[in-house]
Amino acid sequence: MTDSSGDPHVPDGPVGGADGNADDTASYGFPTPVWRAIERHRPPGLPGPRSWRSPIRGPWLTSMFGAVLLIALPIVFLTGLLDYLAYGPRLGQAIPAHVGWLHLPYFDWPTRPSWLFRLTQGLHVGLGLVLVPVVLAKLWSVMPRLFTWPPARSGAQLLERLSLLLLVGGIVFELATGVLNIQYDYIFGFSFYTAHYFGAWVFAAGFVIHVAVKLPRMLHSLRSRSLRTELHTPLAETRPEPLDPDGLVARDPAPPTISRRAALALVGAGGLLIGALTVGQSLDGPLRRTAVLLPRGRTSGPGPNGFPVNRTAAAAAIAPSDVGTGWTLTLLGGPQPVTVTRDELSAMSQHTARLPIACVEGWSTSQSWSGVRLRDLAERAGVPAPGSAHVVSLERDGPFGAAALHSAQVLHPDSLLALRVNGVDLSLDHGYPARIIVPALPGVHNTKWVRSIEFRS
């Protein structure tokens, strides 16, 4: 799949014409002197048509990669939007909070099935990683088109080039920031959540325009060759496709160093390898150690608390005195505040539920939690039918020191103020002396080190 350098100063032929007639101005949309003047002022160092010599590059291979992305990228985009909704924009706690006309229809995120957020976030991150080799292969396959000069000779070509700018820029930005976010802890000098949200819409705009412009040609290209035939074509019989109006096929092809079937196998194997190094993120047990691409989900606590920790007590600046014998929970919203010690919480009716917890970085785990139902605490506070709840943590440093829960989340029978996990007290890193655990709720809103809960009617 490697290209050899040729003469970088050979001008590009017309994109819209098939015969290379430079006087055919009708297909360009601009007067001949205009595009000729632009063509003469080619930026120095810009690769020309003869720089791209791979004999396997062409519309069919490009369309194969495009067909995979056409199916998979909308799934990544839609699961990302669902994850944004899971953070509760109606409750004012999603990031970014103010998105103008890009806001989504507000609704209360479901509590059933309990693994809903685990599914959407795991699919969003996992599939996004698996698609990285496909995206890179697609960019390689259209590289000659990205360096076409002049960039456009008609209104239709200008629209296509703008869609490419949005599409390529958007997907590269989303993949780069997404991969960095799951590898490192808050390394950005800006809000990852805000940038990722708006970046997704930039990509979506380019994607829709590009599909509208290119879909007919992609379908035609896919029908031009048989996939079965290509999968049975060895390197020795690999030949270039016929010259195409987009200039993807090399004018002066080099001898093939890889067949199309080998190129497809290479990209597919890359995706499968990434999938194999990612799938352990959602599986408890030995396979979690294989999730080397998600290191933040591999840090665990001790013993029965031996499951992933995203933010430790030290990182959250939780002092030992904050969670010592003097710790109390304050319940607000009723006629007067109610203060409850941990011993009093332990003496209340206890409930156990096996619930998953999933993080925005893609990892998830399912554990057995025990504690007091939130609806029982609401009754204790004097608000038997809360419309929402506001939970505040002892955490002093971080964007998730508080979270809001809607009515269904508070009243769900498995929604708990957890005191224990897997039969033992919570470890400090997992939220001792008490933490929230709610079905299908994003991990960062399952607040740890709870200080107070205000039940609002």
TrEMBL record:
Keyword check for Transmembrane: yes
Superkingdom, taxonomy of origin: Bacteria
Chain ranges of the Oxidoreductase molybdopterin-binding domain: 325-456
Annotated Pfam families: Oxidored_molyb
Keyword terms, alphabetized: Membrane, Transmembrane, Transmembrane helix
InterPro entries: OxRdtase_Mopterin-bd_dom, OxRdtase_Mopterin-bd_sf
Keyword Nucleotide-binding set for record: no
Positions of region (Disordered): 1-23
Spans through the membrane: 60-82, 122-141, 162-184, 190-213, 262-280
PANTHER family hit by this protein: BLL0505 PROTEIN (PTHR43032:SF2), PROTEIN-METHIONINE-SULFOXIDE REDUCTASE (PTHR43032)
Protein name stated in the entry: Molybdopterin-dependent oxidoreductase
